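User: Can you fold this complex?
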Amino acid sequence: MIHQFTYALKSLFRNKMLIFWTFAFPIIMAFFFNIAFSNIVEDEKLDVFPIAIVQNQEWNNDEIFQKSIETLGKENSEDRLFSLHYTANEQEAKKLLEDEEITGYLIVEKEEPKIVVKKSGIEETVFQNVIQEIEKQKNIVVDLITQKIEEQMKQGITTIDQEKIINEELQSVQEKGTYTAQKNENNHLDYTMIEYYTLIAMACLYGAILGMTAINNLLANMSTKGMRVSVAPVKRMKMIISSSLVALVAQLIGLVLLFAFTLLIIKVDYGEKIFPIILLAFVGALAGLSLGVFVGTVLKRKEDTKMGILIAVTMLGCFFSGMMGITMKYIIDTAVPIVNKINPASMITDGFYALYYYSGLERYWVNVISLIIFSIVLIALSTIALRRQKYDSI
Amino acid sequence: MSKVIEVKDLTKKYKELTAVDHLSFNLEEGEILGLLGPNGSGKSTTINCILSLLTMNEGEIKIFGKEMKPNAYDIKKDIGVIFQEVAVFEELTVYENIDYFCGLYINNKQERKEKVEKAIEFVGLSEFKKFYPKQLSGGLLRRLNIACGIAHEPKLIFLDEPTVAVDPQSRNNILEGIKALRDKGATILYTTHYMEEAEILCDRIIIMDKGKIIAQGTKNELKELAGIEEKVTLEVENLPQEKQEKLKKIPNIEEIKYEGNQLMISFQKGENNFTHLLEWLKQEKISYDGIYSEKPSLNDVFLQLTGKELRD
Ligand SMILES: Nc1ncnc2c1ncn2[C@@H]1O[C@H](COP(=O)(O)OP(=O)(O)OP(=O)(O)O)[C@@H](O)[C@H]1O
Ligand SMILES: [Mg+2]
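Assistant: Here's the predicted assembly.
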């Protein structure tokens, strides 16, 4: 067992390809992100920018949305982000946008806030991000308010001051620092955080390559090395488990390096909740490993091909969860929500995001549990395949 | 002598293709048994079925008198396998590779160290212990591949075409090594499509074609099947057609071929074939150079039995 462990570790750490993809690549990406973002911060300091709100019926009925936007548009406020224009209908807003008087406008239709912008840039991204956040927060606030009102009614209070409750709840949510796009202490715009989170996701999922390689070397139908192992008097499951552990250890080392680099050198803020952060990274690594084990056992292709597939899947997953700009995540989330529901990169990214932005852990746990389910499903499918000891063809 | 391997009615199909067709044979303790057959005749498939890596459609495999199964660890511990394809870790050195695979059999560190050193010595890689597989020539890599399979000193060794694409020097080294293993008491199943190798190395040979045994025996027994006794080759300049016709009338001549200056004569079994030929040459006053006679090769056997050449 120890013999197997040390050699697996040795061969893994000497494999330049593996080291590059699982260790170096995410750090290199972090480095480039940092350069790109610090330029943004220095060159285009994020000023208050103009947006328009279409005051249709739905807007007028949506008190929570109104309050939130107003707070962000309040003159002389530290949190001020927008200068607000109100228009009576969409045509007017459109015209303002055409004339480049505003960055974009917001219209609430069918209970969905819709953002219209003309180009894609920092301000547009921030705008989109903020509105998305408000919408998410709104649902939480609505729940809280409903609860409060129910409580008061139960207590027999008949003169319920709805306005006051709404204000109080909004206040408390805002105090937790939600949906403000102000710069944090390290000069990173908050919305760039998500791109660093996708890097963590990437490092977790690249662990799949380690898992896949480990499994490939043990299975007779995947490699001649595997044939060698299969004719030896060793328990297969024991080999598989010890090799997978090695892959996991290596993966965790890679993650520690990436965390160290982003925390200490780039000064990315992951929030304060240390234990949940570690748990999420660990579960993420587990998901990556399971993906690797799955591809290793089930897919009968050359090792290089499998590696290519894993790299492509990881990249795509990270891209969909906002690695190259958060807009992509919004597009996917709205157009094909199922994709990010089963995309482990998105689960990991969203988990970190939830930890950072939300005081409650509900959304965080949804992601952690999704990742665990993802892993269990893949491991279960792999185990079925691994139970075969003889093959019809090798 | 006891039976180390008993194969009964082994049949293996890949979808429609029957790769091994009702194959039965035994491997006796202490012998080198050769499975000789052209590419695709089912040699590797046979080995992989015996080793319980492949499912079989029919048949029964016993090793050391016990039924072979994937979890028959007590059988597996005494087996060493060298697969057709080289299987080593690129990231591990020569020493580490052998140590890794040996470690699947032998847990005791000290014992393993001795065995690994011995194996390295045995295949002649002492100078290359710290080399990575990439740095080895094709021949040396094959030797490493072999060392990985035999370091634990198995009683039964399978070698699947271990000399493919190997330079003559390494090939001789490998063949000598295999004989040495047998002399030290190992029993060996050796597959090849080189008939010379089978002739030099094997105590007994099974000739396979299309998954079936077409002949088996010692090389001399097999050569009996060739239908010819010997082949005589001599150099003759300008042998006219009429003389060639006359030549064919000598008793026992099966076939003659005249190409360039080479006259090749195949004789059937019979008495004094060579003498008859020499007398005839003298009588006809045909001058010749470099006459030599050969026993038939396994290729002739294969040709006789299947109507095609073993090798092109
Ligand atoms: N995995 C497979 N799937 C389908 N057919 C296969 C498979 N492996 C081998 N075959 C076919 O089975 C037959 C026997 O193949 P096998 O590899 O056992 O031959 P071999 O004697 O070892 O040949 P070689 O000298 O080329 O190694 C061939 O016709 C081959 O094409
Ligand atoms: Mg073969």
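Residues A 393; B 14, 17, 19, 37, 39-45, 84, 161, 193 surround adenosine-5'-triphosphate (ligand 1) (CB under 6 Å). Chain B has a mean pLDDT of 90.
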